[in-house]
């Protein structure tokens, strides 16, 4: 346990035991077993010991979110994502190989409709992974993403990108059912996380 | 499979040479770190190609570690780049 | 041709396509005029190129244990890449290393506080 807090944000830091989350421990143990490459009592127990130790040494604030995963919509989200990655990769490759042409880029603001942090995070991750768009700035307060779009061309391309991002957000909301949003946390907790 | 190996090694070698040129040119630290990130990806690809051609799993843990640690360099450089203080613009 | 041969041929195609995508990414890194544009190239091989190469490797190894590790590589790469690219993109935009003359729309610049010490390029 810590003694006197050195920084203001340590006041609100959760106790170390709160870092022990079953899901995290199981996931870390699974990684350990996979790295050993065989499933035996030795690797499983060793993995659990290491996982608990890691969670105690590096406590992570508990994620508070209400998830209602809908498998069919999740499958659709993944399939559409992979299709987007392939299509966009071909487009970006084509832009790259047109050596004589300078791309016309854009930085656009996309104000997400939901106020869930989880949806913001997932949408930001997925738009970053799909080539052609890159999250330059994310505002948690207003749930706004700023995207850098490769070779948007003109206003039509910009509008298309915005529509695609909103469609992605809708698919994420349908798949994870996070439209209710997480429990709003206080500012001080947020700083320490 | 040996034809595949020759082909992949040639492509990846040319790619890494281009990346080394970019790392050398810069002009900023961020440019270099992005190119270094891609160089790590090239290394991952090379190891994976070699493992596939020779059908062994010895290097797979190395792939796991590289895929986890590859981004640490760029994050730390980005964090300490001038003018990018990591304070959210909540007051604005 | 047996099923094993088909898997081997598919694996070979996957490996070459992945290497080709990586090469295209390197070309992009070398040729694009500013950092944010180059980062589009940078995130690309780490997604599709790597996924395709891992798929080729999985087709060639055909072992469940190895498959688990390969899925982990793919997941880790896909979780960490956006973090790195977002941090670098954000830092470079704030440091003013953007070719604003290449932007057709810019919603962000006027909302950011201007840093007088940053070099305007």
Structural class of chain C: mainly alpha
In the residues of chain C, how many domains can be counted? 1
Number of individual domains of chain B: 1
How far is the N terminus from the C terminus of chain C? 59 Å
Major β-sheet profile of chain B: none
Oligomer: heterotrimer
Average of pLDDT of chain C: 78
- N- to C-terminal separation of chain B? 59 Å
Gyration radius from CA atoms of chain C, angstroms: 20 Å
Which helices and strands appear, and what pairs or packs with what?
The complex is a heterotrimer of chains A (193), B (92) and C (121).
Chain A: H1 22-36, H2 41-57, H3 71-97, E1 105-111, H4 117-129, E2 133-139, E3 144-149, H5 155-176, H6 187-192
Antiparallel strand pairs in A: 1-3, 2-3
Chain B: H1 2-25, H2 29-54, H3 60-79
Helix pairs in contact in B: 1-2, 2-3
Chain C: H1 3-31, H2 35-61, H3 64-94, E1 103-106
Helix pairs in contact in C: 1-2, 2-3
In short:
The complex is a heterotrimer of chains A (193), B (92) and C (121). By secondary structure, chain B is an all-alpha fold.
Explain this structure to me?
- The complex is a heterotrimer of chains A (193), B (92) and C (121).
- Helix content of chain A is 52%, strand content 10%.
- The two termini of chain A are 18 Å apart.
- In chain A, a hairpin with a 4-residue loop joins strand 2 and strand 3.
- Chain A folds into two domains: 8-57, no CATH class; 71-180, Alpha-Beta Plaits (2-Layer Sandwich), CATH 3.30.70.
- Chain A is mainly α and 193 residues long.
- Chain A has a three-stranded antiparallel beta sheet with strand order 1-3-2, covered by helices on one side.
- Chain A contains six helices and three strands.
- The longest helix of chain A is centred in the middle third of the chain and has 27 residues, at 71-97.
- With 92 residues, chain B is mainly alpha-helical.
- Chain B has one domain (2-79).
- Helices cover 76% and strands 0% of the residues of chain B.
- Chain B has three helices and no strands.
- Residues 86-92 of chain B have low confidence and may be disordered.
- Chain C is mainly α.
- In chain C, 72% of the residues lie in helices and 3% in strands.
- Chain C has three helices and one strand, in the order H-H-H-E.
- Chain C has helices at residues 3-31, 35-61, 64-94; one strand at residues 103-106.
- In chain C, helix 1 (3-31) packs antiparallel against helix 2.
- The radius of gyration of chain C is 20 Å and the shape is elongated.
- The chains are: A mainly alpha (193), B mainly alpha (92), C mainly alpha (121).
- Chains in contact: A-B, A-C, B-C.
- Chains B and C meet through helix 1, helix 2 and helix 3 of B and helix 1, helix 2 and helix 3 of C.
């Amino acid at each position: 346990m810590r003694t006197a807090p050195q920084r203001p944000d340590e006041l609100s830091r959760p106790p170390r035991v709160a870092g022990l989350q079953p899901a995290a421990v199981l996931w870390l143990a699974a990684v350990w077993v996979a790295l050993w490459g065989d499933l035996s009592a030795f690797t499983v127990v060793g993995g659990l010991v290491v996982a608990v130790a890691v969670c105690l040494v590096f406590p992570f604030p508990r994620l508070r979110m209400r998830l209602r995963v809908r498998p069919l919509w999740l499958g659709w989200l993944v399939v559409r994502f992979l299709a987007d990655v392939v299509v966009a990769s071909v487009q970006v490759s084509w832009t790259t190989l047109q050596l004589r042409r300078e791309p016309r880029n854009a930085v656009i603001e996309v104000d997400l409709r939901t106020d869930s942090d989880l949806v913001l995070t997932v949408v930001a991750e997925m738009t970053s992974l799909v080539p052609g768009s890159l999250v330059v700035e994310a505002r948690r307060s207003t749930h706004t993403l700023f995207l850098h779009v490769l070779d948007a061309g003109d206003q039509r391309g910009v509008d298309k990108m915005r529509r695609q991002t909103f469609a992605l957000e809708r698919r994420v909301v349908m798949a994870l059912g996070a439209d209710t949003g997480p429990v709003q946390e206080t500012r001080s907790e947020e700083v320490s996380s | 499979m040996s034809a595949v190996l020759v082909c992949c090694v040639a492509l990846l070698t040319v790619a890494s040479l281009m990346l080394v040129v970019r790392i050398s040119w810069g002009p900023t630290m961020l440019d270099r770190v992005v190119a270094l990130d891609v160089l790590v990806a090239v290394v991952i690809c090379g190891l994976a190609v070699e493992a596939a051609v020779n059908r062994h799993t010895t290097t797979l843990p190395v792939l796991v570690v590289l895929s986890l640690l590859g981004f640490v360099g760029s994050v730390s450089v980005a964090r300490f780049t001038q003018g990018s203080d990591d304070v959210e613009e909540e007051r604005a | 041709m047996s099923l094993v041969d088909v898997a081997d041929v598919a694996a070979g195609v996957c490996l070459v396509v992945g290497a080709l995508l990586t090469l295209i990414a390197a070309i992009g890194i070398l040729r694009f005029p500013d950092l944010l544009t180059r980062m589009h190239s940078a995130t690309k091989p780490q997604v599709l190129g790597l996924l395709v190469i891992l798929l080729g490797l999985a087709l060639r190894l055909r072992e469940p244990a190895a498959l688990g590790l390969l899925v982990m590589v793919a997941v880790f790469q896909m979780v960490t890449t956006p973090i790195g690219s977002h941090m670098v993109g954000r830092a470079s935009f704030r440091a003013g290393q953007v070719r604003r003359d290449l932007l057709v729309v810019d919603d962000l610049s006027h909302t950011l506080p201007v840093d007088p010490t940053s070099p305007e390029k």
